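User:
I study polymers; will you set down one protein's sequence and backbone structure tokens?

Assistant:
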Amino acid sequence: MEITTDMIKELRATTGAGVLECRKALVGAGGDQKKALDFLREKGLATAAKRADRTASQGMVELYSHGNGRVGVMVEVNCETDFVARSAQFRTFAHEIALQIAAASPQYIKETDIPADVLEHEAEIAKARARDEGKPENILDRIVEGRLEKFKDEVVLLRQVYIRDEQITVEKLLLQNVAAIGENVVIRRFQRWELGESTAAE
């Protein structure tokens, strides 16, 4: 099957991959856009994982205010170069992360950020609840494990379901952007405020 310029353009628009990479993917997929897209995504995600140890000290701080100032978010997203930091794709990604934080109220960026005492406390609550529900002792540990995983899915940003696409997590969205941008991208830190909420000092 002949691979046309329009086919390459369409794939490039979707993936942000180079012309040669798009042509190669389309040839390998026999002109099938969906198969070529899957191929590029898989390749991109594998490459993205390899970039994770590269230093990312450029980037931006994205500010987002929602609901006429009822919720405010500040998030720092880093990349490797100033050139990428100014790109539309990187800025759009940073904005999407701010929206995610505003909508889904994560407490941590990654799983390893959760303090051990918080996990212990959640495990105790889960175990007490399972006992109250009359669950047998021999399956309590399995139930606790399942509930802790659910807790992590709710409070860890990278494990959350992406608000615009329930098929992927925020981590997958991050990897897709790393693959498309071609640099390591790191969500460094964030703060979310909601009008009227109490602080730890109060």
User: Anything to note?
Assistant: The longest strand covers residues 58-66. The radius of gyration is 21 Å. The domain at 5-51 is CATH 1.10.8.10 (Helicase, Ruva Protein; domain 3). The chain has three domains: 5-51, 58-110+156-194, 115-154.
